[in-house]
Amino acid sequence: MDFAIMRRRVMASSACLLFLLSACGDAGQGSPTLPTRGPKPIVGVILPDRTTSTRWEEQDRPLLTQAFNYADIEPFMENAEGDEAKFAQIADEMIRRKVKVMMITPLSAAGGLAVQKKAKAAGIPVIDYDRVTLGGQAEYHVGFDSVNVGQLQGDGLLSCLGDKPGAQIIEIQGAPTDHNATLFAQGQKSRLSSKYDSGALKLVKSQPVADWNNDLGGQLFEQILNENGGKVDGVVAANDGLAGAVIAVLKKKNLRVPVTGQDATVDGLRAVLAGDQCITVYKPVRDEAEAAARLAIAIARGDLEGADDLATGNLRDPVARRDIKSVLLGATLIKKDTVRTLVTEGIVKPAELCAGALAQTCAQQDILGG
Fold this sequence. Notes:
Strand order of the largest sheet: 2-1-3-4-5-11-10
Distance between the termini: 37 Å
Largest sheet: 7 strands, mixed
């Protein structure tokens, strides 16, 4: 599959919606009210939580809400708060209200599959949003090329380590129930395994973290670090939240080593500017939300041929042994000297990055001027 071609098609197809989104103003942050009756088709969206990443409420919700409202589609959007029971209850209510399509970010494969089976029985198509339900029945998937994200993390770590021979590496991976975490690790291994095998790097331990729980990630990292005599030269942290937990432990022990991340959160970018985090990976949530909204709108309007035209690629589900029609998007490696690009593109505001002790660093990086 040629990801470059696919991404160009996705960006071209989403250009119109990007204009519409920018033209329709700011959306409120609260959950939309679902009308009891009305002629508008309804799209159901289940966001996963508020804790693993700030993106779900700060970015995905307003972007999706704007797109659906502008298209005269009624959004029924709820957050599962990391609770499988609530995830299932929201889905049941969406099925009862006869949504035209359901977009879900599953908390687990089992929970996602249970919902997808009910939706299929009710004749409601499902889009796996950002995460794949392994062994599931979703008709479509919209997300990022997660293997490539992992490759960028591996490349970033190697760049920050330099030529230090036998550097000791600890990997703090994401939830084992999230297929994205598996793909991130796969991408990392494509860059790092040969280094481990040759002895150029030493893998101390690769540790998955249940539910992407940052507190647990910090505890596990500290345990591994202590068991290794307090020695570490670099850390693969699967996202910015886990990176922050790792950095807190390192600071407590007066250590500073290269740490990777992902998501380009404000906290992650500030850590990169401060030199506490080596790199993060920027995944343009706006592009993902636009692509998912276009797909859901086409389905809600009954344009299944148009929906298939938007899903220009396939993602393999190794459990179900099938290819899922997908939109896969690219990502960008961000280091200290490239944080400014996110400011100039309007992704993050200087005031968010440069408060307090980082003001001088921002001035040096020409960030305060945008």
